Amino acid sequence: MLTLDKIYHAQYVLKSVVKETDIIHSHVLTSFYGCDIYLKPENLQRTGSFKVRGAYYKISQLSDEEKAKGVIACSAGNHAQGVAIASTKFGISAKICMPEGAPISKVEATKGYGAEVILVPGVYDDAHHEAERLRAENGYTFIHPFNDEDVIAGQGTVGLEIMNQLSDVDIVVVPIGGGGLVAGVAYAIKSLNPKIKVYGVQAEGAASMVNSFHDGKIETLPSVSTIADGIAVKEPGNLTFELCSKYVDDIISVSDDEISTAILTLIEKQKMIAEGAGAVSLAAVIFNKIPDLKGKKVCCVISGGNIDVTILSKVINRGLVKTGRLVNLTMELLDKPGQLVDVVSIITSCGANVNSVSQERASDASNINGCYLRLSLETRNFEHIKTIKNELKSHGYKLL
Questions:
Q1: Helix axis angle, 149-165 relative to 51-60, nearest 10°?
Q2: What is the model's pTM?
């Protein structure tokens, strides 16, 4: 069984390997959202994620016989890097099954830390099945990314650090994929102070623990789809489900747009890069998904920062749209000289910036000489967008 002593032992073992990430008080976010916001930046951890904690502690506890067999794991990317580092440290052969859609940066980093990567078609759960098959076929020692007491104990050291660094915290918000991090953090915190609230957060497109928690039984999703690839898990573990059911106060979900906004907020307001999985905790806070936050000390665990840079611009754009900082307008107008100049003049007089313009003739336009004009604008907020639209309409332009 998981015990507080085991988590303290994990903390001792990890002392020379894992960074004790400082808790950051965000004055700017506090001023915006009405609660005292603190960040636990595990994105600054070695490998860019908390996952090295559980992976390293688990491998440190293997017997000589288990180490000799070599280890195998499955991962969307962050656990893979933790297993790779720990295996190299202990001189163990490591194979990692990863979904073929895993970010190239995570795949290459895993290889760089010394592990052999096996790309598997599908999502995390498909990689898990392949890892189990290879384990049975070759006798490898399996290092589960979340459903293991030693792994959970390692992740629980995040909770010990929070209690040591911010003992008067009221609420702790933790990202959830399979549930290893929140299970360990919640167990540690509730064991030391049961009055502290612990909330878990998942992406709407991969809400397996949300459904299981609220229905009181483990449930499997038919598919998952979210920008938060690090927490795209179809089914939670039985150990993590049991611990969440006992120690977590509630589990909620956030949309991809809300996650994108949280990533953008961390970049702009905190100068911090988080991946989708790492930003869900802040998304839950800034979109008021958690009750009774006003005036409370809230600690958001930013679990990882290994975002795929190839999608970063897309994520930022979604965040800009969600907050009214970017808008795409389509209008129907007559295809005659001077129309485009007039439209752009109106928009610039309202203080907006035109990013892009495209114009096309359209056979389905209401006027035979009509065309469609599509514009992408940089704006201040939704009120600014409303002002621009009203000004265009007042000049007789038809917005679609």
A1: 130
A2: 0.90
Q: What are phi and psi of 247, to 5 degrees?
A: -115, -15
Per-position b or e across 19-37, b if 16+ CB within 10 A of its CB: eebebbebeebeeebebbb
Read off the amino acid at residue 234.
Answer: K
How confident is the model over 218-242, as a mean pLDDT? 95
| Dist CA 75 CA 97 (whole Å) | 6
**Phi, psi (rounded to 5 degrees) for 198:** -125, 125
Tens of pLDDT, residues 31-43:
999 899 999 999 9
In the structure, how many helices (H) and strands (E) does the chain have? Answer: 16, 14
User: What are the tens digits of pLDDT across the range 270-308?
Assistant: 999 999 999 999 999 999 999 999 999 999 999 999 998
Per the CB < 8 A criterion, the answer to whether 78 and 51 are in contact is yes
Task: Please report, rounded to a whole number, the percentage of residues in the chain having pLDDT higher than 90.
Answer: 86
User: Across the chain, where does the E strand assignment appear?
Assistant: 24-25, 36-41, 71-74, 94-99, 116-120, 141-143, 171-175, 197-203, 250-254, 297-302, 326-334, 353-361, 370-378, 398-399
Task: Please report, to the nearest 10 degrees, the dihedral formed by the alpha carbons of residues 203, 208, 211, 212 taken in order.
Answer: -140
Distance from C-alpha of 208 to C-alpha of 124, rounded to nearest angstrom: 13
**What is the spatial distance between Cα 210 and Cα 108, in angstroms, rounded to a whole number?**
32
- Sheet arrangement for strand 398-399: 353-361, 370-378, 326-334, 398-399
Beta strands in 24-164 (DSSP E): 24-25, 36-41, 71-74, 94-99, 116-120, 141-143
For the segment 106-115, what is each residue's pLDDT rounded down to a tens digit?
Answer: 899 999 999 9
With contact defined as beta carbons under 8 Å apart, do 209 and 180 qualify? Answer: no
Q: Are 182 and 162 in contact (CB under 8 A)?
A: no
Rg (CA), the chain: 24
Say which residue the tokens 């988590």 belong to: 7
> Is the separation of the CB atoms in 315 and 284 below 8 Å?
no
Dihedral angle over CA of 338, 340, 342, 347, nearest 10: -170
Active centre residues (catalytic): 51, 303
